[in-house]
Amino acid sequence: MSRDVFEKASALGKSIIESEEFKEVQDRERDMIGNPDAQNLLKRFHELQQLQKEKQKKGEQLTAEEAKEFEQVQLKIVENRTIKAFSDAQEKFQNMMNQVMKIIKEASVNTIKNKE
Predict the structure, then answer these.
(1) CATH code where residue 71 lies
(2) Could you report how far apart the first and last alpha carbons of the chain are, in Å?
C-alpha cells in the first residue's frame, strides 16, 4: 500500500514541476535575479527590515529618515514590474498548490466518511 502512495506522490511532484504555474515562477525568478534594479531594491528592503527588527529588540524605532526610506523602498518594490511579475507568478502557483491540498484533504475526508 505505501509503495502505491509513494509512486502517486512522486507522480504528483513531477506534475507540479511540469505545470505552467511552476515554470512561470522559475522564469520570473530568473528575470528578477537578472534585473539589477530589482536586486538592489530587494537588498535594501531586507537591510532596512533587518535594521527595524534590531531596533525593535532594543525597544527603539526607525528614525524618521529611515522610516521614510523604508516606505519609499516598499513603494518602489510594488511598482517594479519584474518584482510584480514574480510575485504574481508565485501567487498563481500558491493558489494551485492550495487547490491541490484541498483536493487531497477532501479525498481523505470522503474516504473516511465512506468507511463509516
Answers:
(1) 1.20.1500.10
(2) 21
Cα distances (angstroms) measured from residue 94 to each of 32, 34, 65, 88: 18, 23, 36, 10
Domain count for the chain, please give it.
Answer: 1
Taking only the tens of pLDDT, the chain with its 116 residues reads: 689 989 999 999 999 999 999 999 999 999 999 999 999 999 999 999 999 999 999 999 999 999 999 999 999 999 999 999 999 999 999 999 999 999 999 988 766 666 66
Domain of residue 67, residue span: 2-115
Measure the CA–CA gap between 26 and 73, rounded to whole angstroms: 24
